[in-house]
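Exam revision sheet. Question 4 asks you to relate a sequence to its structure. Input first:
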Amino acid sequence: MAMAAQIADEIYEAAFIPEKWPSALTRIADAASSTGGALFVFTDGAPARGRAVPELQPLMKEFLANDNLRFSTAASRMSALQPASFVDVDSFLTPQEIAEDPARIRLRALGFGAHACAAIALPTGEVAMYVFQRALKDGGYGPEHFAVLDGLRPDLARASLVAARLGLEQARGTVDALAMMRLP
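Answer key, C-alpha cells:
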C-alpha cells in the first residue's frame, strides 16, 4: 500500500509539473508489470497532446504529428468508447484490426504487445486517455494488473482534472496578458 501512495504522490506532482509525467508513468507501468505507458489528452478542435515513458517519447512525438498514427483504429475505438476502468484494448478490436493498426505495428516493432486503456472525460471538455503496454514476450494483462491500474485510476482522474484546470488558467493568463498589451 505504501508503494501505491508514493505513486499517487508522483501522479499529483505531474499534474502540477508536466515534465514529471514520464517518471510517474514509468512508476505506474512498473507497478502493473507493464513495459510502457502514455497519457494522451484529446480536445475537440485542438491538436492532441501527450506524454509517455522515456522509451516511448520519440514515438509519442511522431504519433502526435502523424494523422495515420493518431487516428489509428485502436486510438479511435478507445476514444469513442471512453472506458471508465482499464480494459484490454484487444478485446475491442478484431484480429485483423490489431494486425493492420499503424500504431500497433510500430509498437510491435519495438517489442510492445497487449494494451490496457482507460479514458477519463473531464468537465473541461477534454478526454485524458491512459494507455499501458506489456512486452510481447510477457503476454496479456491479467486481473492482478487491472487491479493495480484501476486502484490508481481515481488519482489519475483527479490529477488529469487538476492539470486541465491549470492549463485553462495558464491560457486565460496568457489571453489576459495579451489583452493588456492590446494584442488580439
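Marking note for examiners. Strands lie at 36-42, 49-52, 87-88, 112-121, 127-135.
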